[in-house]
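Figure 3 (text version): structure tokens given as input.
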């Protein structure tokens, strides 16, 4: 079986970031046209677009703050004018912040995680899913995290945002399923990427993973491509851990 995404258009938020760029490359390798969203790093996004175009697909870079309704709406118009309407959404962007205890975490960090995890997904759905409904096909893939299950000390703002995201996407899966739109979540562990090597500081983490190693950014991209394809046409409403068994969703 091959993953064939020819004729589809994917929009990846945070597409020029450490996990996003590999998702974009993988989707393009499967034949999808790709809109690479970025917030601030224009040079990185445009460099990735040049790389994707070399794979024989259409690609573009598009800027927006995905927590602001007007900017998400403007992104839809920009992408539509250049490539058309996306039928694959990969909601990957997230705001970074310094983790500390619940008692010391600034309230602004909880607000930022709500905006980048919950409102981000709501705005992307409200903006792009109606066109998918009219076509009777679509994919929404949210990038969650193993932290949502670990609930370890200092993770509270991140976990709060990602658990809120989980609720929104599970409800969305039920609401848009009749139009053959699937909604799923990919939950990475602590992955190796171009920016995050596998050093000695990860020894304790690796020891706790049943596979005794860390996964890679490509492991995440592989699942994203699968969920975007017709091979996953009957999979929806799922939170899928890609963590080597470090967290195990239960029944």
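Below: residues designed for each position.
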């Amino acid at each position: 079986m091959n993953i064939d995404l020819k004729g589809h258009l994917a929009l990846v938020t945070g597409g020029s970031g450490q996990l996003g760029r590999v998702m974009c490359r993988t989707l393009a390798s499967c034949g999808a046209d790709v809109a690479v969203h970025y917030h601030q790093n224009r040079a990185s996004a445009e460099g990735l677009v040049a790389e994707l175009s070399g794979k024989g697909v259409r690609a573009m870079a598009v800027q927006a703050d995905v927590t602001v309704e007007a900017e998400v709406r403007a992104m839809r118009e920009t992408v539509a004018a250049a490539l058309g309407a996306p039928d694959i959404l990969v909601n990957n962007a997230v705001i970074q912040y310094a983790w500390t205890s619940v008692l010391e975490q600034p309230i602004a960090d909880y607000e930022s995680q709500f905006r980048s995890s919950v409102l981000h997904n709501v705005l992307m759905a409200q903006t792009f899913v109606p066109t998918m409904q009219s076509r009777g096909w679509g994919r929404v893939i949210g990038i969650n995290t193993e932290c949502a299950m670990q609930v370890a000390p200092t993770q509270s703002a991140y976990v709060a945002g990602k658990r809120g995201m989980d609720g929104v996407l599970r409800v969305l899966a039920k609401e848009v399923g009749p139009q053959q739109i699937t909604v799923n979540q990919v939950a990475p562990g602590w992955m190796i990427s171009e920016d995050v090597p596998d050093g000695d500081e990860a020894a304790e983490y690796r020891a706790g993973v049943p596979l005794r190693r860390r996964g890679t950014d490509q492991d995440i991209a592989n699942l994203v491509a699968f969920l975007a394809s017709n091979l996953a046409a009957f999979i929806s409403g799922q939170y899928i851990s890609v963590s080597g068994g470090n967290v195990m969703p239960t029944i």
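The CA atoms of residues 140 and 234 lie 13 Å apart.
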